[in-house]
Amino acid sequence: MYKSLLKPLFFLKKPEDAHHFTVDLTRLTFNLPMIGSIVESTFHLEDKKLEREVFGLKFKNPVGLAAGFDKDAKVIDEMAMLGFGFIEIGTLTPKPQEGNPQPRLFRLPQDESLINRMGFNNGGVYEAVERLKKRKSTVLVGGNIGKNKVTPNENAVDDYLICLEALHDHVDYFVVNVSSPNTPNLRDLQEKEPLKALLQAVKNVNDLKPNPKPILLKIAPDLTDGQLDDIIEIVQETKINGVIATNTTTDRSQLNTSKGEVEAIGAGGVSGKVLGKRSTEVIRYLSEKSNKAFPIIGVGGIFSAEDAIEKLEAGASLIQVYTGMIYEGPGLIKKIKKGLLAHFSQ
């Protein structure tokens, strides 16, 4: 029904308008009497074989919702009804910010991909905390945190610590995001010394808490092997809990969409099918080079159970979807879980 009816309707709208419409529609309809239970029964598929224990947390299944869809923690309970094993909110920043000027989200249907230059648009971490206090579901929630655009890199650690303090009692794990291509100079924080200092500062504050939370690092797919070697070293030195591979890519060489159309869109990170191969390469490299020293959450180009299995076999412990759900629909989550069960039974 999604591909034949809903998707064509959604794709008539501008991408960002379609996103807000989907979020609003989900909040409205999923909370109507009987509708929520129908949704849950339609998308429900749980099995002991799908359960995972990763960085000390018990996941009912390995399929998560990537950051970016529910930046402001507006639809955690509703997304949980679709059968996700975990949901990542954010990226959140200390102060609310509008992000980059619109339009800033673009579809590439020929590539089943998206280009975005959202720029960490969000209502601020404190607004999200108030919503988190009211959530009803027990689904695991990750807090993806970043810095405000106006904060210079030399003060970036302050922004990450503000978010950590605000969210600590309300999320199950943290993701330090230094890999978005849409905040000026943010990716400079992926360089070895700044990154090590940032992660160590975040970990030191987290470790002083009565109930420390797992700390993960989200990295770009555009890093060289040498930079990935640095990531492995930093993860092991700072003793953070894992890596999310990967964010969007600035590489457009694999796109089938015409060069003129892509150039007209302008700056932004690419997600979707075109990212799948490189994301898997990064996962495999990190896993093999580190001798599986830390867990990896695989994200990028997952449109089927086969894509998810490829990520897991490359070394990921868990996977996340976002763009794949836009093109394939919410049934993708159950399809992936069915495929994993069939794979595990072979």
UniProtKB/TrEMBL annotation:
Cofactor binding comment, as recorded: Binds 1 FMN per subunit.
Q: What broad class describes the main subcellular location of this protein?
A: membrane
Q: Would the keyword Coiled coil be found if you checked this record's keyword annotation?
A: no
Task: Kindly list the positions annotated as binding FMN.
Answer: A67, G68, F69, D70, K71, T91, N144, N177, K218, T246, G272, G301, Y322, T323
Q: What are the Dihydroorotate dehydrogenase catalytic domain coordinates in residue numbering? A: 50-341
Q: What class of enzyme is it?
A: oxidoreductase
Tell me its cofactors: FMN
Q: Name one GO cellular component term.
A: plasma membrane
Q: Could you tell me the superkingdom of the organism this chain comes from?
A: Bacteria
Identify the EC number(s): 1.3.5.2
Q: Where is the active site?
A: S180 (nucleophile)
| Cross-referenced InterPro entries | Aldolase_TIM, DHO_dehydrogenase, Dihydroorotate_DH_1_2, Dihydroorotate_DH_2, Dihydroorotate_DH_cat, Dihydroorotate_DH_CS
Any idea which GO molecular function terms this record carries? Answer: dihydroorotate dehydrogenase (quinone) activity
Q: Which GO terms describe its biological process?
A: 'de novo' pyrimidine nucleobase biosynthetic process; 'de novo' UMP biosynthetic process
What the protein does comes down to: Catalyzes the conversion of dihydroorotate to orotate with quinone as electron acceptor.
**Assembly behavior:** Monomer.
Task: Tell me the protein's name.
Answer: Dihydroorotate dehydrogenase (quinone)
The organism encoding this protein is: Algoriphagus antarcticus
Q: Which gene encodes it?
A: pyrD
